[in-house]
Amino acid sequence: MNAVPEPLAIVRFRSVAVGCCLAILSLGGVFGETACGTELRALIRDPRLAEISGMARSLGHPGQFWVHNDSGTEPSLYLIDADGKTLAQRRINHAQSRDWEDIASFALGGVSGLLIADTGDNGGIREDVSLFAVREPAPESANQALAIAWQLRFRWPDGPRDVEAVAIDPQTEQILLISKKRVPAELWSLPLPAWHSDALQHPTPQRIGALSGIDQPAPDSTSKATPTDRYRAQITAADIDPTGRWLAVLTYQRVYLYERSSDQSWADAVQHAPRRLDFGWLPQAEAISFDARERAIWVTSERLPAPLLRLPF
User: What tens digit of pLDDT does each residue of 197-254 get?
Assistant: First the structure.
């Protein structure tokens, strides 16, 4: 979701407020823990990362994450560490950043990859959207551009929709997409193509279910709410953990965790009530990733300075 420009005074105030939050949390130790277990690990300040809308754990470099910006910026991926430091920038050749909204990491045939979702559509006007994959690069080759390995261009079967959440199931090699504004949120799927795939034009995503348990504003409070309040329940990102057991879904105010048993599909799993993790105030929370090594979730924001949060579960 594109950020609305703010007066300089508001930007400065927000910067001070986040800094104060960091100082308060640090009283309990290095970046400390809040009462709900959320750890504020860092503040991302790199001006190149002014609108982070997607984050994925690196499979080749555990403890690090690939992130990207929203629409209107150059088509690049950035590697950051758990301290919020930018380690590398990699431009993607022949790619357009129309409305990048999420990224997912995956391994296929022993090769690590990154899937970028150019599926944002705030106005519901795009005739087609796309997903494309690149092989995960080595961070030390920072000056080399990335090539697109394959690209899926497709249309929703019943008309445009805004989708900001994508995840990849490592067990079934399935791409999951979740609608943002529709209630209940829709769950769609596409097969994950092989690396050598050619001519991947216009596949048809399949609607496989709807997500239960996403808290919505009370009907009688909607007219009194600010625009931010009305949008808090919209889904902005998703991820599946390395074991394929957990699906994490991010909204502007919390994380929902759906657990899948060994005999369940995701269509069945999202029918059950999810666990809810509240992380408190975070402006435009739009990026989420499971930790590669520990049972934890990472979340960050589309506004600078962007808090980098870690949520054990």
Answer: 765 667 899 999 999 999 988 776 555 556 566 678 999 999 999 999 999 999 998 9
Would you list the DSSP string of 142-161? TTSPBPP-EEEEE--TTS--
Element (H, E) at 132: strand 129-135
Contact 238, 178 (CB under 8 A): yes
Q: Name the amino acid, one letter, at 267.
A: A
Output DSSP code: residue 303. Answer: S
| H/E run at residue 19 | helix 8-25
Query: Of 125, 238, 133, nearest to 177 (Cα)?
Result: 238
Around 15, how many Cα atoms within 13 Å sit in the side-chain half-sphere? 12
d(CA 169, CA 252): 23
3-class secondary-structure state, position 64: strand
The phi and psi torsions of 276 (rounded to 5 degrees) equal -120, 125
Q: How far apart are the first and last CA of the chain?
A: 27
- Write out the two tokens for 38: 């959320």
CA distance 51 to 67: 10
In the chain, what are the domain boundaries? 8-312
74-92 pLDDT tens trace: 899 999 999 999 999 999 9
Q: 0.90 exceeded by the pTM? A: no
Band of residue 20 on the pLDDT scale cut at 50, 70, 90: very low
How confident is residue 10, by pLDDT bands cut at 50, 70 and 90? very low
**308: Cβ contacts below 8 Å, ≥ 6 apart:** 40, 41, 42, 43, 44, 82, 84, 298, 299, 300
DSSP3 helix / strand / coil % (the chain, rounded to 5)? 10, 40, 50
Q: Looking at the domain 8-312, which fold is it?
A: Tachylectin-2; Chain A (2.115.10)
